[in-house]
């Protein structure tokens, strides 16, 4: 049995094919005799919709059993997770879902036993938590978008628009939720998308294949998933307001692109083309240098600089060098937006930009030297300020800590009282 309920998409082609078969059956008005028990479902004005969902589920299960008949049990369990997701997602389209859900699942599990009487269907088909269903659907539609293009169900233009919107929505929700299994499933999609380029674009010769950014869960100094930008988050913060409906709010204030990068743990969102991507990358570097210049008295700044350089800049160094070389060329006039942004950054921070290009470690060392060369009284003030800042961050946990300590003291007193009395 798979332990990660998001780790089922290695059989995505089969799932999509199964759904296509159900759609074809319905168009031909094929009736499945084993789904006759669905007709006794009765939930008022939504009765017909519920019956159709039930009938389609039975068809899907029958086709699934045929599809996985020769597979290992561990692989079959992934199909079962897909079936449970599919049913939960369809049921949640019913307006009165909360009213009908218990009766529906009871009726289904009582009258339908496709795996025999020895298998408890409640262990396979059951109500799932809403956020999981939303996450699964976001992943499923990413894969389906590829299939829709391959099958000619959507245009190339629609595909490009949707892949960008849907990928970024999943990327943002990954870090918003902090669910490693969900994020890992996005990483798997990223790999799938790149490996299946020739198949997805087979009928679109000459068209540009939209490029997904590299996606990494483990990067840099900390070697912990979803916690790559620890110091960046502590010093600068993120840029999104928590949301669970695929919509998000970007705070377009100071350091906005840098904050977005930190929120995404040094991963870039998908852009429509290289011009847009490189523009964001130059903005990030510009804002990073600006932040470092404006916060030289921050004792943790050099640690943040090291985190940024190792977790992000070094990973994108080849692309940055390409931008630098192209935009520094004197042989031709470059009108790309990112070159204009590069020239602006160079005008404002020429020395810093030059140092990062030539030796980023020296850039970090100069910040360390700056702190070490401060007068002792000024360093003492900065250390005291940092201590109070850390205390403020810790204070919200203090009541819990004190309560735990008091509880332990109470239990110790009761224990000794008991020993004395006995």
How would the blueprint of this fold be written?
Elements lengths: L11 H16 L19 H21 L5 H19 L5 H15 L18 H21 L5 H22 L2 H16 L1 H4 L29 H6 L20 H8 L10 H21 L6 H13 L3 H12 L8 H12 L1 H9 L1 H13 L3 H20 L2 H24 L1
Pfam family, one: Plasmodium_Vir
InterPro entries: Plasmodium_Vir (IPR008780)
Task: Please name the defining characteristics of this protein.
single chain; 422 residues; mainly alpha; 3 domains; 18 helices; 64% helix; elongated; Plasmodium_Vir
Q: Quickly give the structural class.
A: mainly alpha
Poorly predicted regions:
392-398
Mind describing the biggest β-sheet? Answer: none
Q: What share of the residues lie within helices?
A: 55-70%
Terminal CA distance reads 51 Å
Number of helices: 18
Q: How many structurally independent domains?
A: 3
Mean pLDDT: 87
Shape: elongated
Rg result: 28 Å
User: Approximately what portion of the residues adopt beta-strand conformation?
Assistant: under 5%
Elements, N to C (H/E): HHHHHHHHHHHHHHHHHH
InterPro entries: Plasmodium_Vir
Pfam family, one: Plasmodium_Vir
Protein described:
InterPro entries: Plasmodium_Vir. Pfam families: Plasmodium_Vir. By secondary structure, the protein is mostly helical. The protein contains 18 helices and no strands. It has helices at residues 12-27, 47-67, 73-91, 97-111, 130-150, 156-177, 180-195, 197-200, 230-235, 256-263, 274-294, 301-313, 317-328, 337-348, 350-358, 360-372, 376-395, 398-421. α1 packs across α2, α11 (274-294) packs parallel to α14 and α15 crosses α16 (360-372). The model is unreliable at 392-398 (pLDDT under 50).
């Amino acid at each position: 049995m798979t332990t990660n309920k998001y780790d089922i998409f290695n059989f995505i082609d089969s799932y999509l094919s199964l759904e296509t078969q159900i759609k074809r059956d319905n168009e031909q008005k094929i009736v499945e005799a084993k789904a006759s028990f669905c007709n006794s479902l009765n939930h008022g004005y939504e009765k017909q919709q519920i019956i159709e969902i039930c009938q389609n589920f039975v068809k899907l299960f029958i086709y699934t059993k045929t599809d996985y008949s020769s597979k290992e049990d561990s692989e079959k369990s992934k199909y079962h997770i897909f079936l449970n997701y599919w049913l939960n997602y369809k049921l949640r389209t019913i307006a009165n879902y909360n009213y009908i859900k218990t009766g529906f699942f009871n009726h289904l599990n009582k009258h339908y036993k496709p795996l025999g009487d020895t298998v408890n269907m409640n262990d396979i088909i059951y109500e799932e938590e809403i956020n999981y269903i939303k996450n699964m659907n976001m992943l499923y539609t990413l894969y389906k978008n590829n299939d829709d293009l391959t099958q000619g169900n959507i245009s190339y233009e629609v595909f490009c628009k949707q892949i960008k919107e849907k990928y970024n929505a999943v990327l943002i929700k990954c870090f918003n939720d902090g669910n490693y299994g969900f994020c890992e499933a996005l990483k798997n999609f990223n790999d799938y998308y790149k490996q299946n380029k020739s198949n997805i674009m087979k009928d679109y010769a000459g068209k540009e294949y939209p490029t997904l950014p590299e996606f990494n869960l483990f990067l840099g100094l900390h070697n912990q998933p979803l916690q790559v930008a620890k110091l960046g988050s502590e010093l600068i913060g993120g840029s999104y307001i928590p949301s669970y409906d695929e919509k998000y709010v970007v705070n377009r204030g100071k350091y906005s692109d840098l904050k977005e990068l930190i929120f995404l743990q040094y991963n870039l969102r998908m852009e429509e083309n290289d011009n847009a991507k490189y523009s964001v990358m130059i903005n990030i570097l510009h804002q990073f240098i600006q932040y470092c210049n404006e916060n030289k008295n921050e004792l943790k700044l050099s640690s943040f600089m090291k985190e940024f350089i190792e977790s992000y800049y070094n990973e994108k160094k080849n692309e940055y060098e390409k931008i630098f070389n192209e935009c520094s060329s004197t042989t031709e006039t470059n009108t790309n937006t990112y070159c204009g942004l590069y020239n602006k950054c160079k005008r404002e921070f020429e020395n810093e930009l030059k140092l990062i290009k030539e030796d980023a470690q020296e850039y970090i060392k100069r910040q360390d030297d700056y702190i070490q060369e401060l007068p002792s009284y000024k360093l003492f003030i900065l250390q005291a300020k940092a201590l109070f800042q850390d205390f403020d961050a810790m204070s919200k946990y203090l009541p819990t800590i004190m309560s735990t300590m008091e509880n332990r003291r109470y239990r110790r007193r009761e224990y000794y009282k008991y020993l004395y009395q006995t």
